[in-house]
Amino acid sequence: MKLIPKDAAKRLARIEAREGTPWPERWYFLVHDPALPRGLREFAVADGGLKANRSLSQFADIIKPAEVIGADAVKIDSDAVSAIAARYTVANGMRMGALNYELGKYGEGATPAWRIGVENPAGDPLGILIINARTGTVERHDGFDKQPTEAAAPPKPVKPTPTPTPTPAPAKPVATTKPAATPTPTPTPLKPFVITRPAATPAPTPRPNAIKRIGGSVKKLFGNE
After folding, report:
1. Which of the residues 108, 175, 213, 222 has an alpha carbon 20 to 30 A from that of 95?
2. Which one, of 22, 18, 29, 28, lies nearest residue 101 by Cα?
């Protein structure tokens, strides 16, 4: 819807798509265009791009102002309605093949609603769902006797009981054997170093006769004799 012009989206009247599995190849947006004689303009969207903008459609000949819904009124998107259709199909023991989408004033009081036609894989119709486009409420479910809430719910998967992880025993402390301390050797006391001085040689005692001779010589030198 974001691919069509914003002013055209405000005048949205219908949405059409066929043979979705669950998504159709092409979407058609029909808007009211007051500038055209029949008030009809159609936009075709496919592959994420706008493919056509024309004043004719295979789904309608004319669009009146009373048919306008406006894009803002559509609160339930196609992915939500396809999921609802899948739940109804499974609840009634059927196989879904394709979906035909229509959005317009189909609900009670002409409120905006999705009209979803469900087919089986062979293309045969299984039923029609009318889903409020504002609230997602299923207003009609023609062809589906059982509603998903009435069908047996699939068993819930049993969660396996987790195996408790054994708590590892605390590791025993590894005894660290310290090597025996090597005894410090007792130092051998040093012998005192004694300096032995040589004995003093005594001065020779002069002989008496020599002193007397020396004395006599001195007296003669100074004239005392």
Report:
1. 108
2. 18
This prediction has a pTM of: 0.65
**CA atoms lying within 13 Å on the CB side of residue 71:** 13
pLDDT tens-digit map of 10-49: 999 999 999 999 999 999 999 999 999 999 999 999 999 9
Domain ranges of the chain: 6-142
Give the span between the Cα atoms of 208 and 8, in whole angstroms: 163
Q: Are 85 and 116 in contact (CB under 8 A)?
A: yes
- Listed residue (67, 58, 1, 17) closest to 39, CA to CA: 67
Residue 119's closest CA among 143, 149, 140? 143
